[in-house]
Design brief:
This protein has about 240 residues and is mainly β. It has five helices and 14 strands. Strands 2-3-4-5-10-6 form a six-stranded antiparallel β-sheet, covered by helices on one side. It is elongated, with a radius of gyration of 22 Å. It starts with 8 loop residues before the first strand and ends in an 18-residue tail after the last helix.
């Protein structure tokens, strides 16, 4: 967790800190200043489920940006699929055969569309014929039936509100530390990665050599600073 009252040193990967919303919900920030509510965390599976904070509880959300994980050690999950949105298109298929997104409205001869990435109808230059496009990641289980019955243009909002899954991988700076049973950490002041060992003495070493020296166990003292309830987000294997 991120907290202005916490030490400059903390346990965890840089950029993985959670913040709390005013209502106490955990938020993860990703590159490009994008923020996401955290729905679930499964440490055993190394997965996290996120929902774009800008579209929560909207029945007809408008995708405003494509997601990026930047250099963070995240990977898209096989449980995910990308949706391609095209807005205000001036050239498009027969609306009866390929339904547009009616809830976003039509502006004269312009219409908006959503497709599973790669399933765009051929014969159109979607990037050129449409004013704007964005790619959103959702869980594949949420759209499989919608695609089968050609109702994605009405069901995409539910899928977006269910969020998407990311796998996190071991940061390259932390390989040696974690291979030796430690927890990777970070020093904000020195801007360097640290290694906290789990031997009960709170040892501190360096991630490059995996060695430890006696120190303070920062992993434990972070817990009192948690100000939002994440107990409901955690997988049952953690309880």
């Amino acid at each position: 967790m991120e907290d202005s009252t916490a030490d400059d040193q903390y346990c965890g990967y840089p950029g993985f800190g959670l913040k709390c919303s005013d209502s106490g919900e955990p938020i993860l920030g990703l590159p490009n200043n994008d923020s996401y509510f955290v729905k679930h965390i499964y440490f055993t599976l190394s997965t996290i489920t996120l929902v774009d904070i800008d579209i929560v509880d909207q029945t007809c959300p408008r995708a405003t940006h494509s997601m990026s994980v930047g250099t963070l050690p995240f990977d898209y999950s096989p449980l995910d699929v990308n949706l391609s949105f095209y807005f205000n298109c001036t050239s498009f298929p027969d609306p009866i055969l390929v339904p547009p997104i009616t809830c976003l409205g039509s502006y004269g001869t312009e219409k908006s569309y959503v497709f599973k990435e790669g399933d765009e109808p051929e014969g159109f230059d979607w990037s050129e014929d449409c004013e704007e496009n964005a790619v959103m990641t959702v869980k594949e289980t949420e759209i499989t039936r919608s695609i089968a019955i050609n109702e994605l243009s009405r069901a995409f909002g539910v899928a977006m509100n269910e969020g998407f899954v990311l796998n996190w991988t071991m940061a390259k700076e932390c390989v040696s530390c974690e291979a030796n049973g430690g927890f990777c950490g970070y020093n904000n002041t020195a801007r360097e990665v640290l290694c906290f060992c789990k031997d009960g003495h709170g040892s501190i070493g360096t991630p490059s050599n995996g060695l430890c020296k006696k120190g303070m166990i920062l992993f434990l003292i972070l817990i009192p600073f948690l100000t939002c309830d994440i107990s409901g987000l955690l997988g049952l294997d953690l309880v």
